[in-house]
């Protein structure tokens, strides 16, 4: 028996989900059925594709070798679907977008809401993770990053620049020591990332303005943002998040404002899938417009 696309589709779901239950949920299948299909595929290929453990399913050596071929079959299926449906019709299907916490919370909800309203047959998913996404394992269909990757089979497009501001709530500033220069920051409580959980050098905001101590730390930008809103101290806040925190006031803007960039990262093979390219173009346009709107409002 040869492996069919349906077999490979199930294999990919287990490889990405790491368990039969996660794959079954994504496929709309019972986990036991997924297990039987994987066992049948392994028997047909005369090789174990996964190593099973209490932590879940990890790819075996044979599974790792099969993975790129299964991904190629997936791309061919998507391209075939594009060809049949035509390029001018409404978009449909599932799209999972990976993004860092700040973008996922303060930009993507409204951006993807607008795209979803225009294309109601699209099922849109946002995955907010405090780390770099592995597109080769299809953790997401496309990802937004704060730096451009230099390795892997991916394509990269700059979306736009954005700003970060040292900010605090009026409640905090009314009772805190004076802030006339960056040197005065050492007299204040500082909110920031847990140092050993900064997964990209572009997120090391505080060291760029000469701050080495963090009093209140989290790997989540949203937690940092809410600490600042509650008057806990000074934090680097995304300019596009400022309208969501009207209590926050930028401080020392000439000395502490930083510029960063968002990048759209896609699997290299997706360039041949018109549907993915259309969605990517819509996202880039909507993110640029939303950044301009929010930073203008701030």
Please give a structural write-up.
It comes from Pacificitalea manganoxidans. This is LysR family transcriptional regulator. Belongs to the LysR transcriptional regulatory family. This protein has about 300 residues and is of the alpha/beta class. The chain contains 11 helices and 11 strands. The protein has helices spanning about 5-15, 20-25, 30-45, 60-85, 100-105, 110-120, 170-175, 205-210, 220-230, 255, 275-295, and strands at about 50-55, 55-60, 90-100, 120-130, 140-145, 155-170, 190, 215, 235-240, 250, 260-265. The strands form 2 sheets. Strands 3, 4, 5, 6, 7, 8, 9, 10 and 11 form a 9-stranded mixed sheet that branches. It has a two-stranded antiparallel ribbon with strand order 1-2. α1 packs across α4 (about 60-85) and α6 packs across α11. The longest helix is centred in the first third of the chain and has 25 residues, at about 60-85.
Describe the structure in brief.
This protein is α/β, with parallel strands linked by helices and 298 residues long.
Please describe the topology of this protein.
Blueprint: H1 5-17, H2 20-27, H3 31-45, E1 50-53, E2 56-59, H4 61-85, E3 92-99, H5 101-106, H6 108-118, E4 121-128, E5 142-145, E6 154-169, H7 170-174, E7 190-192, H8 205-208, E8 216-217, H9 221-229, E9 234-238, E10 248-250, H10 253-256, E11 258-267, H11 274-297
Parallel strand pairs: 3-4, 3-5, 7-8, 7-9
Antiparallel strand pairs: 1-2, 5-11, 6-9, 6-10, 6-11
Helix pairs in contact: 1-2, 1-3, 1-4, 2-3, 6-11
